[in-house]
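[stage:ingest] chain + small molecule (protoporphyrin IX containing FE)
[stage:ingest] validated
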Amino acid sequence: MSDLNDEVSAHEPTAFELVGGEARVRELIDRFYDLMDLEADFAGIRALHPASLDGSRDKLFWFLCGWLGGPDHYISRFGHPRLRARHLPFAIASSERDQWLRCMAWAMEDIGLAEPLRERLLGSFFETADWMRNRNG
Ligand code: HEM
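[stage:predict] done
[stage:export] tokens:
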């Protein structure tokens, strides 16, 4: 006999759950933007962002909660993300894509996400970041 609790606990955990929920997603995003702000390696993509990263932090946090399979905070505020269109004002070539991905990989490591999860997420981030490229080079 299975009851509702069995079914609830038997579902495949979402990436959001594996990361550890909202507090951990926030930690990841804060580390990501701290690194972008601090590290010379990421100066190229830092320069594309506004002087204050406060708004960027909130938007990426809201977006990632839903993207990882958790609550859809971004969509409930802004509607469909139209992510590629929203990135068109910024020149994104392979170099910017790779800076973004290295910054995210570094942040995931710094907050102590387990290696197999980091690898899986990096693969998904690559797909999205690559799709955002809008310039050659
Ligand atoms: C490929 C390299 C990328 C670069 C150079 C880049 C750069 C930027 C910049 C400059 C902004 C504007 C920040 C602001 O208005 O405060 C932005 C916004 C945003 N980015 Fe990216 N991004 C990249 C990849 C990604 C990826 C892979 C994701 C998701 C997994 C993402 C999600 C977002 C979101 C949700 C916003 C907020 C959009 C809005 O509502 O205005 N970005 N990005």
